[in-house]
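Example 3.2
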Amino acid sequence: MLDMLLKVENIQEIGRFASLKHKAAQFGALTLIFARNGYGKSTLCSVLRSSSELKGQIIAARRRLSATGDSLAHLVWKGGAATKFKTGVWDLACPGPVHIFDGEYVHRNLHVAESVTRDNKRSLISVVLGEQGVALAKVVSDLDAEQRALASEQATSEKTIKAACPGIGDVESFANATMPADLDAQITRAEQGVQLARHSLNVKDRRSFAEINLLPLEHYEALAARDVADITDDAAAKVKEHLDAHNMHPLGERWLKYGVEHQTDNSCPFCTQDTSDVPLVSAFKGYFGEAYAALSTELEAALAAIRALTAEHGGLVHRLDEHRDDIEFWGKVCDLSSPPEVSADVRDRVLGALDAIQKLLEHKAANPLAKKLLDDRDAVNGALNELQGYLDGLTKCAPAISEARTSSATADTAKAQEILVKRQALKKREAGSVKADVDGWLKRDKRRREIEVEKKKAQQDVKTYAETTAKTKQSAINDLLDLFGANFRIADTKASFVGREANTDYSIQIGNRLVPAGERSETQPSFNTVLSAGDKFTLALAFFITQVRSDAGLADATLVFDDPFSSLDAQREWETTSQLRSLAANACQVIVLSHDARFLALIEKNANGALSYQLNCDDNGTGAISAWSSAEELKDLYVRQCERVREFASTGTFLAGINGDSLVKELRPFSEDYLRNRFPGRFGPLVMLDQMATEIEAVPDDPMLPHVAELRAINEYTRDYMHGGASNPDPGALRSQCKRLVKIIGSY
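Structure, written as tokens:
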């Protein structure tokens, strides 16, 4: 024998039990446990379910209300395995599968309150599709769970990414965007675009670069070396002699030139004497002629330009500083493409070169006929070339500045800022925590898309499998309903995917009418109204039996039934016991708990090796599992029922623990027990009161013949109460039936 449950060694502070002890022999392959209602059957089932599912919350929900200690449980299994519940958890799972039929099974798989819910239909998938179908449906369920987990993780990542990269609205587009090769340049241009928009008015009015007027070195050298062709050697000699004689160097020549330019009518501008016959004045006029004047003018202009550049205020240094400010401004609003720079060393070299040129020109101006060369021409030329290169660089900036001026008229600050934010976000995407978040997002997004494909295929696999399997299971369930004598069937059983997970749809068929299983309706027939309580219970039992029979692991499984027979219909009662015995022959173990001693006796009577126990619990919460005899229990039950009937017939009051609903349900079985006990062996175990009356009528001298009408009246009166759903009986009518029954049994 495989791993069956041998003992409920101990239960503490759970349900009604402050403490429950196993005080009997070990359980067997077919174990029958008698317990009156409210004595702990449901508690025992919950402990077994908690152990099989490893869910401590099931026990927590049943913690004893007046508990003072921890909730504990200890189960002993064949093979030495022991599972213990302590500190809210089980140390081990059950060694084999455990399937439990009880109110919780009905609640999960058939209906909640008066409606068949989506959760019911989802749980029922195991019944309809069996083990292979459940495995297929689990693929769908697992994929859906993974999909939802990914969606949750994606949502968290998106919040993190958006927080790190403000302005990013569509994370998917952001994560999949191609990284530009010139991203840094794009960021720079975007920054410039923002500045352009912000300073559009300044851009419009901003000056361009101040000019630096500097001619090539060759121009200045040519000027310094130029001859005055019209000046004779004699005139030049006389001027030189005069200057030397009067010690008028270096500005004497200018003074003389000034005087010649201001002489009128041969009158000396200094003393007004006539100079027409003065040879020296004639020499001066020849020396300072038009050619000399032209040269002097060019020299003065060149010197003025050079002196402007070398001036302390407003000179080259000032203009270079202005350029630096301009370059900084324009570089913020447009792409100057590597704007030129002048280092301090270059600036100093240029100033040195300008000083050398200035001295060269001054020497020439003082001595127009003299020719002078630069002392370090290469250095001067190199410095000027460096300056010219800088000026050429400024010229190259002009198109960008011009374009910026044009663009400033339509610049949009918000749009420019949006472009910048997106470029900066792409930069962040390539490094640090943002890169990790985006990489994770892309990985999950890829998996999400894969799941969508896999899930569609898995759903189709379930539907394809269900097309044939559901029909087979529907047929098996309906066969059981036939055996139970039910007047309804199930139809249109199929798997569907309303919601995230696979579930089932089916209808209740009564005759040719179909009623879909679903929510309760106030205006039309529904699951609640077309089935009695007994019918619903029978349907649930048919579902359960079909499910466990299709389980490939049935031989290793323990099956637990909590009051599997709730109707006193003899046909259903007999068939239920037959099904339980059949299951016991194939399962590892079958445990049946019931408050109905007759029902357990009927199982025991036709089974080999059934072991019977009783579950008790006193008012202090002390419980025990002990040995039990169905025969002794039924004898006591018959006597107790007789007392209840007689008391109500005589006084109209109920004995302790009895009410109208419970007493009316005892009238027919008590009448049947009376006839079987009075006439042992005459009536079969499945013969009901109405059939008994018919058999009595067939014997003319039968001693019970005078009471046939009363027997039929009792049977007719109790019929509506035997399957549930009827209202509590009228006390007057119930007492009349009890008096009728006492009249039949007399003093027997």
